[in-house]
Amino acid sequence: MDVDKIFDVLQGAARLVDFLHVTGGEPLLQWEALAQLFDLAKKIGLRTSLNTNCTLVRPFEKLLEKKLVDHLATDLKVPFSMLVGLPETVAGKLWKLYLECLSLAAKYGVTVELRIPVPANIEGYLEELDKALNVVSKRLRDTEWYVVVTPLLGSPHVNPCNKTWCEKHCNPPQTLVGKAAVIAKRYASRVYVSQIARDLLED
After folding, report:
1. How far apart are the first and last CA of the chain?
2. Residue 45 CB: number of other CB atoms within 10 A?
3. 3-state secondary structure of 176
4. Angle at CA 163, nearest 5°, toward 160 and 166?
């Protein structure tokens, strides 16, 4: 879709919203069009929010250099290799890129929404989550950030998601979601549990 057409719709809705939030797929794959759209949004007084997997460092940095991103939303996937579905060697490289993006967000004063999808039946998950949050919190210490804890739900409705994997690791018990939130509170001043998770916790 042409950026100008999106902007026409956005301009008509601008008085009703505070943020333009772009998600995907992966928006940074089209970072030039995204930069154009965010620039137009800012010209009509809107703040901008980007949902990304935080592995495309240079495109993200280009947006930051232009001061086009106010808010970043990204998933903290733990264990990283398992949840991205890649071998350890590849996942290790992506994890480094992920942390680099978080450091850039902090450097440019971008508010970060760290989303924690909680999986089921992974031995040592809470310990791994604690370690990951310890590393991430150091990257984000110079900017505002908060956590949203939500259960990893399934079964998936689309391919190429693996239904067998999801039957084992999706839909965690309510106690595990609660424990993940407790760990997150050790590091973040604001921790939210998603409405879906709250509904599960109340059942």
Report:
1. 43
2. 9
3. helix
4. 110
